[in-house]
Amino acid sequence: MQKLCQICGADAHGLHFGAISCRACSAFFRRALLSKKLRKTCKNENLCTDFSGLKTPACKICRMRKCIKMGMKPQTLQKVSRSVEIFVGRPNMVLFTTNTIKKRNYVDVKNLVAAAFEILKFGAPTPLSNNLSQLERMSLEVTYSTGKCQKLDTICKNSFSEVWKFDFLTAAKWLTQLEEFTMLPMKIQMQLLQAIWSVFGRIYKSGKTVELRKTQGENSRTMNLSDKHYVEMENTKIDMSWLSPYPFEQIMAFFCAGSDASNDLHEYYMSDTFGNRNYASRIMKMMKINQHLQRAIRLQREKTLIAHTFDIFIADFSHPEMFVDSGC
């Protein structure tokens, strides 16, 4: 076999599209056939002969003309050479679908953002007290009793909507208790709210879930969702058809593979109520929770990016920046 590329004279790789060529010229021919934009005229009056690209960028139109002259044929281009599952390693059992056009759902949260904007605009409902630390003011703003919560048997699109509404507006009220936050421009306040609300909701519901399980016994498998609802993990049906065409079990299998606040915590645990009992132990536990949370957020962002890349999710949001850490 000829050892030199018939197009540019470099070391040949083999027979591609009907001509002996190198990888670069073969790739160029493929891209040129698939591309909708290709220069129609040559700046050198169609006299280009050097296609190696070592001295000057190779003229695309002359290079294409040389490819065809040497025997390359567009008819030999294979439109589908390998299945997507094999090429990118996508598992058939999760992502196989006969639907070529997927119906997508649009989630409009403009009204929710507008409601949160009004909360930020008017600030805290009660005057900020100088007798309480920032941490105490913020904790009082979002306190509710889990005794009023009712069990939810099915989680559907409306359930997610209610949880998002509760988390987003509660986070907005919580932030209004932070004096430094209220001094920021309104645009920055909204950007911060959209960045932290889902993480805030996760932390807050975790604490309320612990409170709920204490009242229901050691073997409780309940999880708090909002000030109105909780679910039993094993007995709750989850409808995710609005978010993904794949069953919930397959989605779960895919995903499962500040100084002032610190000072307030220090003062709180060193107060007369607590003394210095288990202070170091408490700090270590909180740091451990923080580390686990940050690790979970990073992992979820990576999984969400992969899910969007492979079209696992079929929901589009009016404010996608709000849902970076929501898992959607």
| Secondary structure: helix percent | 40-55%
Rg, alpha carbons = 30 Å
- Mean pLDDT score, rounded? 73
Q: Name the poorly predicted regions.
A: 80-100
Subcellular location: Nucleus
Pfam families: Hormone_recep (PF00104), zf-C4 (PF00105)
InterPro entries: C.elegans_Orphan_NR, HNF4-like_DBD, NHR-like_dom_sf, Nucl_hrmn_rcpt_lig-bd, Znf_hrmn_rcpt, Znf_NHR/GATA
Family: Belongs to the nuclear hormone receptor family.
SSE topology:
Blueprint: E1 14-16, E2 19-21, H1 23-34, H2 60-69, H3 84-88, H4 92-95, E3 105-107, H5 110-122, H6 134-141, E4 150-151, E5 154-155, H7 157-175, H8 179-182, H9 186-216, E6 222-224, E7 229-232, E8 237-238, H10 248-256, H11 259-269, H12 279-309, E9 315-317
Parallel strand pairs: 3-9, 4-7, 5-8
Antiparallel strand pairs: 1-2, 6-7
Describe the structure.
With 328 residues, this protein is mainly alpha-helical. The protein has 2 domains: 14-81, Erythroid Transcription Factor GATA-1, subunit A (Erythroid Transcription Factor GATA-1, Chain A); 105-323. The chain has 12 helices and 9 strands. The protein has helices at 23-34, 60-69, 84-88, 92-95, 110-122, 134-141, 157-175, 179-182, 186-216, 248-256, 259-269, 279-309, and strands at residues 14-16, 19-21, 105-107, 150-151, 154-155, 222-224, 229-232, 237-238, 315-317. A 3-stranded mixed beta sheet has the order 4-7-6. The protein has a two-stranded antiparallel ribbon with strand order 1-2. It has a two-stranded parallel ribbon with strand order 3-9. α7 crosses α9. The model is unreliable at 80-100 (pLDDT under 50). Its main location: nucleus. InterPro entries: C.elegans_Orphan_NR, HNF4-like_DBD, NHR-like_dom_sf, Nucl_hrmn_rcpt_lig-bd, Znf_hrmn_rcpt, Znf_NHR/GATA. This is Nuclear receptor domain-containing protein. It comes from Caenorhabditis briggsae.
